[in-house]
Amino acid sequence: MKIAMLGSGFIARFYADSLIGQRRIDTLHAVYSRNVEKAKQFASDYKLPLYSDNMDEVVNHPEIDLVVISLPNDLHLAAVEACAKAGKHVLCTKPLGRTAAEAKQMLDMVEQTGVMGGYLEDLCYTPKFSKSLASVKGGSLGRILWAKSREAHPGPHSNWFWNKEQSGGGAIVDLGCHCIEITRNYIGKDIRPVSVMCWAATQVHPIDAEDNAIGMIKYANGAMAQFEVSWCFRGGMDLRDEVMGTEGTIWINNFLRTGFDMFTTGQGDGYVAEKAESKTGWLFPVGDEVNELGYNHMFTDMFEAIEQQRSPFETFYDGYIVNAIIDAAYASAKSGQWEDVQIEDWRGATGDDNAERFRSFDEEYYLIKEEILPHGDRKLILKNKNTGEVIVKDL
Ligand SMILES: NC(=O)c1ccc[n+]([C@@H]2O[C@H](COP(=O)([O-])OP(=O)(O)OC[C@H]3O[C@@H](n4cnc5c(N)ncnc54)[C@H](O)[C@@H]3O)[C@@H](O)[C@H]2O)c1
């Protein structure tokens, strides 16, 4: 397949680094940028035969099979519309829309046209995430009770992010979209997100949107997700996830303190990592960012999905659900109440998860816990299923 890139900024270059950094049968072929000089520069840097400052020309070019949208949030809808009209498969960066209503329009457009709509949520493709999710799906953590994801950095790199109209909000829509989809995967995409409680504030920057927020998302099976986002965090990019289940726990540090620490007095001029704030002292470089951040695995899944005529792991429908949760988070931040997640088209499981919640010890008792004491004694704490009495049984 021949790929066209819409946009030539920050994420377009990350995506291009991934697309040309691997020996792929699918090749980056064209770029659109509203500034023709930037399009020309991008095409020259990545050795692309076509560039233009006319989006329709690039999308409709007969050699182009697939379009990657790397434009500001307010331009995703028009770009998806152009791709759907042209009958081209489309991969859109996060967040899919500024609102669920926008995301739903994009979902409908690709589904009605029959092109593939891939949601470029790279953090759901990182090697650490994929292995963790496989462990969760394999049952290593038992029933998932709680999943938390945190993304925090000192704030984005372009003016449009700071304009609420163009971006759709602040740190919640920009960073929360990652955290929401990460935790939703751990809890299970089939489980309906029910309601959201969110605190959001503008603590540091002179903007209309929030630069800090914490949210909780209740799922239909009783599991809880939590997101923490900030545009005020100092010290780089903090990407951490935690999952807690009845049988285990996962902690992931994705970016800072990944096991690669470096000290420099400040000699030289090396690039450290995205959003790194310093080039001196103790630094936390990231070995291969496009790989560690999941871009390689993400594009491979997208291309294979098209070839195999299956859905990719992250679809426009997932992007829509994420936007619906974000809408509820903004409503809750405003009302101070739990707010329902409004989903027009729920495609997952319905009703509560009826799994047995308590672990039986035998016919008569539930097992609350087993404890090994410092001097080596073992005891069981049991609860009588009929009387409710809690007893200790020494082993
Ligand atoms: N990890 C990720 O998945 C990730 C990371 C960063 C950004 N993003 C997303 O990528 C998208 C672009 O963000 P970015 O960081 O590359 O921003 P950016 O500002 O670096 O680049 C945006 C590009 O869009 C172009 N552009 C801006 N306004 C335009 C307009 N009115 N008409 C046409 N072109 C216009 C700019 O010239 C530039 O080429 C956003 O949706 C953002 O949320 C995703």
Automatic annotation (TrEMBL):
<dbReference type="GO" id="GO:0016491">
    <property type="term" value="F:oxidoreductase activity"/>
</dbReference>
<dbReference type="Pfam" id="PF01408">
    <property type="entry name" value="GFO_IDH_MocA"/>
</dbReference>
<dbReference type="InterPro" id="IPR055170">
    <property type="entry name" value="GFO_IDH_MocA-like_dom"/>
</dbReference>
<dbReference type="Pfam" id="PF22725">
    <property type="entry name" value="GFO_IDH_MocA_C3"/>
</dbReference>
<dbReference type="GO" id="GO:0006740">
    <property type="term" value="P:NADPH regeneration"/>
</dbReference>
<dbReference type="GO" id="GO:0000166">
    <property type="term" value="F:nucleotide binding"/>
</dbReference>
<comment type="similarity">
    <text>Belongs to the Gfo/Idh/MocA family.</text>
</comment>
<feature type="domain" description="GFO/IDH/MocA-like oxidoreductase">
    <location>
        <begin position="136"/>
        <end position="250"/>
    </location>
</feature>
<feature type="domain" description="Gfo/Idh/MocA-like oxidoreductase N-terminal">
    <location>
        <begin position="1"/>
        <end position="116"/>
    </location>
</feature>
<dbReference type="InterPro" id="IPR036291">
    <property type="entry name" value="NAD(P)-bd_dom_sf"/>
</dbReference>
<keyword id="KW-0560">Oxidoreductase</keyword>
<protein>
    <submittedName>
        <fullName>Gfo/Idh/MocA family oxidoreductase</fullName>
    </submittedName>
</protein>
<dbReference type="InterPro" id="IPR000683">
    <property type="entry name" value="Gfo/Idh/MocA-like_OxRdtase_N"/>
</dbReference>
<dbReference type="GO" id="GO:0005737">
    <property type="term" value="C:cytoplasm"/>
</dbReference>
